[in-house]
Amino acid sequence: xxxxxxxxxxxxxxxxxxxxxxxxxxxxxxxxxxxxxxxxxxxxxxxxxxxxxxxxxxxxxxxxxxxxxxxxxxxxxxxxxxxxxx
Length: 86
What we know:
mainly alpha
């Protein structure tokens, strides 16, 4: 019986991790969409949230690079350089 409960607990942990990954992917897609339609303020806000919340280095780097691209599009070149090379 304990094995059954351990299995359920493990499945719950796996599902919660999968759900979190889906949330990040959804947020990234939304931010990229905002950037593609020139809604840079909303895109910037989502990328900042992703960079601040996530402990996964790959997601944080992707968010910071996209923030650098947005800064470049806004002709804020100093901020873009900081974000690209930070």
